[in-house]
Amino acid sequence: METLGYLIDGFGVALAPHNLMFALIGAFLGTLIGALPGLGPANGVAILIPLAFTLGLPPETALIMLTSVYAGAMYGGRISSILLNIPGDEPAMMTCLDGYPMAQKGKAAEALAISAIASFMGSLIATIGLILLAPLLAKFALTFGPAEYFALFVLAFATLGGITGKNPIKTVLAAALGLMIATVGIDSTGTQRYTFGVLELYEGVDFIIAIVGLFAISELLFFIEDRAGGGKGPMKVNKLTLSFKEVREIMPSSIRGGILGFIAGVLPGAGASLGSFIGYTLEKKVVGKKGYFGEGDPRGVAGPEAGNNGASSGALVPMLTLGVPGSGTTAVLLALLISMNITPGPLMFTQNADIVWGVIAALLIGNFLLLLLNIPLVGIFVKLLSVPPKYLLPIVTMVAFVGIYSISNSAFDLYFMVAFGVFGYFLRKLEIPMVPIILGLLLGPEMEKNLRHTLDIADGDWTALWDSGLAIGLWVVAFVGLVLPYIVGPILRRRMNATQQGAE
Amino acid sequence: MTQRNDRLCGVLLLVLAVAYGWGATQFPEPFGGAESVGPETFPKVLAVVLALSSLYLIVKPDPDNAWPKGRIVLELVIAVAVLIAYTLLLQPLGFIISTLLAVGTLCWRMGAAPMRAYMTGAVAGVVVYLLFTYALNLALPLGVFSVLEGS
């Protein structure tokens, strides 16, 4: 039971007063970020990374704060889904189906409380799954050689679009662009690549600048284009009356949703959207005719919410053990790890055990804090959400500017960030996904290192890349991940849309 | 529905892929002589991947998204210009004034009443400045207010 020992140490780290305080701040900010329409979790974590730096936080504190932001953002996404029928992010879509009808019946507070409890259960189950699975996977990953790692990185890109992704070729295109940007700078042999003699480019492109630019600045531009500055109308919540019996009734749904969500989160290419979708459809099947789904059944809120949160905790498994994130937000968390000089992957479990287990413990504590925070404070969140984006987004942009500026005090970085923002705007117009670009920027150096290693060992023989059974397996999964969306994607998307329309 | 966007994008990216790939062949030979793998190996692979996927985009483009027109384009250009001006003015004017101008203008252009917009900018600037200076101990440029510092 060495895991248990590590976990207790982890709790020691996470329960230190200053860490607890930052977890609380993170949970609060995260809920707020998740709740704001358009400002998804990846975006929020990205904006807060520079702040974690400027605060000069030690790595474990910064990570604990940002994991709490991550967990909080998942909670926050449901507030506008339930009250306004506007999902804060894609996985929150399913919550609209029964959450909004509940709110219309004057049971908004109950819907919010139920989703908070279900989210808590989902995260709890997934975190337990993470504790059990992660060390095993990390041990297994130690057998990976450079060729396997290279194949794994390819797999990560291939499955990033997810089974529900639209055009896998655009994912490949974006990944290639990201990896190309990552090659800018001085490489491991001291050769200058694509620097064009510009001094600022010698060290390469800072991915934090790229992330904040791509997400935050392009978001501002999109809001301006949509003339969405006015906000989404007023929101109200009633007084909460939730009996113990009602809570007990949603427990089975939450547990089922949580387990399914966790599995969806761990698997490459599935992700939180699919987690909440499966959670909802399964609930409908299991409860059957006895339910009144689509008309405000509490179980229809609990299932997808638990699934969504289970998936987001499950997504941490590949990120922590293999260093390969499966979603945009975990990619941003990976950015934080890399910039703190922690190499994610199997070795982290032995070399930085205190950080890994501190984060896992923080996830548990963070979820508990969120439950405590969410039920009594939901009124405050609702008030803050009524601040229209026309005031909020300029301030968020300014905070992003200050954050980037305070890292380096360089105007060059700010221009670069604005350029990335404009670039991001065009990409989004062309429906080229931005997450593969960021992942490419993050994984580029590692990927190239592993490629060179493999080829060096094999003396330039490219077949060494698929020499072992494991490597072949990874290549096959990668290939399937790329082709499957063409076959399954349209069917799944149609079903998700049908479920939504059927409920309206 | 036209499909011009993806086609154009594909052509541009194909040009980029070729330029990037050509760039990779121009790297100076690393110290110690050329080996089977060098700084150019990975970029060459990327250039091929990008070239192939942009070709696919040219052959099988997705339908276009609507582009903004007229006034909205102007608003977008204004927003980007404000951000660039913000960067330019951050040092000389100082954080508080430049934030007042930048945040205020953005709020105003997004639809807030001018008075309230610039008030928001002023409050945001002062609050963030105080927070950074006193709570976080980080120096933001004071600019024109630096005369007050000495007194």
Walk me through the structure:
The complex is a heterodimer of chains A (504) and B (151). Chain A contains 20 helices and 2 strands. With 504 residues, chain A is mainly alpha-helical. Chain A has one domain (2-140, 147-503). In chain A, strand 1 (185-186) and strand 2 (192-193) form a beta hairpin. Chain B has 2 domains: 4-59; 70-150, no CATH class. Helices cover 71% and strands 0% of the residues of chain B. Chains A and B meet through helix 8, strand 2, helix 9, helix 17 and helix 18 of A and helix 1, helix 2, helix 3, helix 4 and helix 5 of B.
Please estimate the helix content of chain A. Answer: over 70%
Q: What amount of the residues of chain A lies in strands?
A: under 5%
Summarize the helix and strand pattern of chain B as letters: HHHHHH
Secondary structure class of chain B reads mainly alpha
Helical fraction of chain B: over 70%
Radius of gyration based on Cα positions of chain A: 22 Å
The biggest sheet of chain A amounts to: 2 strands, antiparallel
How many structurally independent domains of chain A? 1
N-to-C CA distance of chain B? 66 Å
Structure summarized in a few sentences:
The complex is a heterodimer of chains A (504) and B (151). Chain A is mostly helical and 504 residues long.
Ordered list of secondary-structure elements with their pairings:
The complex is a heterodimer of chains A (504) and B (151).
Chain A: H1 2-14, H2 17-35, H3 41-54, H4 59-84, H5 93-104, H6 108-141, H7 146-160, H8 168-182, E1 185-186, E2 192-193, H9 207-226, H10 244-266, H11 271-287, H12 298-314, H13 316-322, H14 328-339, H15 348-351, H16 353-385, H17 389-408, H18 411-429, H19 435-457, H20 469-503
Antiparallel strand pairs in A: 1-2
Helix pairs in contact in A: 1-16, 2-4, 2-16, 3-4, 3-9, 3-14, 3-17, 4-5, 4-6, 4-12, 4-14, 4-16, 5-6, 5-12, 6-10, 6-12, 6-13, 6-16, 7-19, 7-20, 8-19, 9-17, 9-18, 10-11, 10-12, 11-12, 14-19
Chain B: H1 4-25, H2 41-59, H3 70-93, H4 95-109, H5 114-135, H6 146-150
Helix pairs in contact in B: 1-2, 3-4, 4-5
